[in-house]
């Protein structure tokens, strides 16, 4: 089967929309777009699209294949891995609180969506409501299924407090229950009617699930915090109603086929409230703990990756800015800059990214910055994530690291410097800006030791310009040995560069297996690591498997590869994935 054709899908949707502002999305423009841009447009088009007429079968299938992968690239949480379960003293269903993304909970019969009364999902692309999040993950079949339900009825609005049920489509949950909660004016207190309506949302959702055949006598349901957030129901009252109405339901239905209820919270506020409520109920002995075996969290995508890493001949870690960001050295963070670089804020930059290629007022300030930056990075605390990663590398039969980070964190955390290729240069070296000779570079550390007595500790500035490093051959003021606007001298990285090239050739020549384990390689300079990794895996399917770990925009591969076995995407934070891979 050929891969899903996102350009065809998008071209169809754009044309069908007759929206003139989308005319710039010609097939050629779509073809050359980054996959994340394509996916964002797909999400937009599906959010605003009416479920009628239905999508052509072929287009719909391709969309489902794409969304299935997007959904399954995330780390699922099985309900069996949720710890601390309780039950009402006189009733048997299990209860728990779980904080996370409701579209990632697995092994459940149904999740509950806080719908609006039109029941067709949210049509506002920028709205971050749960209705939108659930529909976006489930795919267009969900809206179509809701539409079919609406069509069957003779009223146009779903009454507040009632519930409908549909399949879950691309979600890990088997079904979705859509309930319409009361909507309040922001800041107002709920009246008696609104309180009853919210309680009815819970009981009618449970009743709706009860009618289903799915999962027999072992049905499970995950409630979101209905009516809170954009519907303005006060969180504290809402969480009381949630627990009380569930309790009432089971008191009235002692032989219920529902065996487990999970209260899903998304905000810290709601997590605290539910926990407080649970604690109070426990004190009053209305809720009692359940002794149960603890199941380890089982993420299918992690299990597959672990096996690949175990069985591979070569483990090659490819690391980008996202990996160092996940251990705190975040180039896009204002806080990091405020905390460690406050003396340099007056020169313009507010984040480390902005220091790249920055026009400092003088060479003296520029070099003061570099000395300070070098010191800050070399004093950065050892990181648990890097150390775990280094341990994983050292356990592999053969290993190597290629990184676009200049910070030397792999080496700092114990990995063999001879096996690290810093493709963009690193902070260990400074070079002549005109590369007057091949060997006009020298170590930064020795330089810093020399000038240290002449740096003002309160301003981080060099006291006078005679201490600015100059080229010993031609006298030019030196620069950092980083790929940039000047003549980058990569001689200090030459040996590792050659080693890496030879390694790749050897893997193909000897028909061996390699895992390219990629962390935090974003879209800023995709030609450095991202595209070469994709190319390696697509051109040598039998030799290279790419495991791409990253958040948001970086967690994508071109659609033509999503169904290939040697392309794995894990849409999660690097340090979380490292923890899971080494556990
Ligand atoms: Zn919305
Ligand atoms: Zn020179």
Automatic annotation (TrEMBL):
<dbReference type="InterPro" id="IPR002589">
    <property type="entry name" value="Macro_dom"/>
</dbReference>
<dbReference type="InterPro" id="IPR029035">
    <property type="entry name" value="DHS-like_NAD/FAD-binding_dom"/>
</dbReference>
<keyword id="KW-0520">NAD</keyword>
<keyword id="KW-0479">Metal-binding</keyword>
<dbReference type="Pfam" id="PF01661">
    <property type="entry name" value="Macro"/>
</dbReference>
<protein>
    <recommendedName>
        <fullName>Protein-ADP-ribose hydrolase</fullName>
    </recommendedName>
</protein>
<dbReference type="GO" id="GO:0016798">
    <property type="term" value="F:hydrolase activity, acting on glycosyl bonds"/>
</dbReference>
<keyword id="KW-0326">Glycosidase</keyword>
<keyword id="KW-0862">Zinc</keyword>
<dbReference type="InterPro" id="IPR026590">
    <property type="entry name" value="Ssirtuin_cat_dom"/>
</dbReference>
<dbReference type="GO" id="GO:0046872">
    <property type="term" value="F:metal ion binding"/>
</dbReference>
<dbReference type="InterPro" id="IPR026591">
    <property type="entry name" value="Sirtuin_cat_small_dom_sf"/>
</dbReference>
<dbReference type="GO" id="GO:0016740">
    <property type="term" value="F:transferase activity"/>
</dbReference>
<keyword id="KW-0378">Hydrolase</keyword>
<feature type="domain" description="Macro">
    <location>
        <begin position="82"/>
        <end position="282"/>
    </location>
</feature>
<keyword id="KW-0808">Transferase</keyword>
<feature type="domain" description="Deacetylase sirtuin-type">
    <location>
        <begin position="294"/>
        <end position="583"/>
    </location>
</feature>
<dbReference type="InterPro" id="IPR043472">
    <property type="entry name" value="Macro_dom-like"/>
</dbReference>
């Amino acid at each position: 089967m050929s891969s899903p054709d996102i350009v065809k899908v998008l071209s169809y949707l754009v044309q069908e929309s007759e929206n003139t502002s989308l005319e710039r999305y010609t097939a050629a423009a779509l073809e050359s777009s980054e996959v994340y841009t394509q996916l964002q447009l797909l999400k937009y088009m599906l959010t605003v699209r009416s479920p009628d007429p239905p999508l052509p079968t072929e287009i719909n299938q391709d969309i489902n294949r794409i969304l299935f992968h997007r959904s399954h690239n995330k780390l699922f949480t099985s309900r069996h891995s949720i710890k601390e379960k309780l039950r009402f003293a006189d009733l048997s269903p299990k209860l728990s609180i779980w904080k996370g993304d409701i579209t990632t909970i697995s092994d459940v019969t149904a999740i509950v969506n806080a719908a609006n009364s039109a029941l067709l999902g949210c049509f506002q692309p920028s709205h971050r409501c749960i209705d939108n999040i659930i529909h976006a993950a489930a795919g267009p079949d969900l809206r179509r299924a809701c539409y079919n339900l609406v069509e069957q009825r003779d009223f146009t609005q779903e009454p507040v407090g009632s519930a409908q049920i549909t399949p879950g489509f691309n979600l890990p949950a088997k079904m979705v229950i859509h309930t319409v909660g009361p909507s309040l004016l922001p800041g107002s207190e709920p009246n008696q009617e609104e309180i009853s309506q919210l309680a009815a949302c819970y009981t009618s959702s449970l009743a709706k699930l009860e009618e289903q055949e799915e999962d027999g006598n072992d049905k499970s349901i995950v409630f979101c915090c209905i009516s809170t957030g954009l519907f303005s129901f006060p969180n504290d009252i809402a969480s009381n109603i949630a627990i009380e109405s569930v309790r009432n339901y089971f008191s009235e239905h002692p032989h219920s086929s529902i065996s487990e209820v999970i209260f899903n919270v998304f905000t810290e506020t709601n997590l605290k409230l539910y926990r407080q409520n649970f604690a109070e109920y426990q004190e009053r002995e209305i809720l009692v703990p359940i002794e149960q075996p603890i199941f380890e969290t089982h993420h299918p995508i992690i299990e597959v990756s672990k096996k690949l890493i175990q069985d591979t001949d070569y483990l090659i870690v490819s690391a980008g800015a996202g990996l160092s960001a996940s251990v705190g050295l975040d180039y896009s963070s204002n806080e990091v800059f405020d905390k460690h670089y406050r003396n340099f804020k007056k020169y313009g930059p507010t984040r480390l990214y902005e220091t790249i290629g920055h026009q400092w007022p003088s060479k003296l300030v520029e070099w003061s910055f570099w000395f300070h930056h070098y010191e800050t990075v070399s004093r950065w605390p050892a990181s648990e994530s890097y150390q775990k990663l280094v341990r994983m590398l050292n356990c592999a039969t053969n290993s190597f690291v290629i990184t676009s980070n200049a910070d030397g964190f792999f080496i700092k955390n114990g990995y063999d410097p001879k096996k690290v290729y810093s493709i963009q240069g690193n902070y260990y070296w400074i070079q002549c800006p005109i590369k007057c000779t091949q060997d006009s570079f020298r170590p930064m550390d020795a330089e810093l030791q020399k000038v240290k007595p002449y740096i003002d500790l309160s301003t981080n500035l060099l006291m006078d310009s005679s201490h600015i490093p100059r080229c010993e051959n031609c006298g030019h003021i030196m620069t950092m040995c980083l790929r940039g606007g000047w003549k980058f001298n990569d001689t200090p990285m030459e040996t590792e560069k050659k080693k890496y090239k030879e390694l790749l050739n050897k893997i193909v020549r000897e028909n061996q297996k390699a895992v390219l384990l990629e962390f935090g390689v974003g879209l800023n300079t995709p030609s450095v690591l991202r595209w070469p990794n994709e190319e390696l895996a697509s051109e040598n399917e039998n030799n290279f498997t790419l495991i791409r770990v990253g958040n948001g925009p970086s967690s994508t591969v071109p659609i033509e590869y999503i169904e290939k076995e040697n392309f794995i995407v894990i849409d999660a934070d690097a340090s979380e994935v490292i923890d899971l891979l080494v556990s």
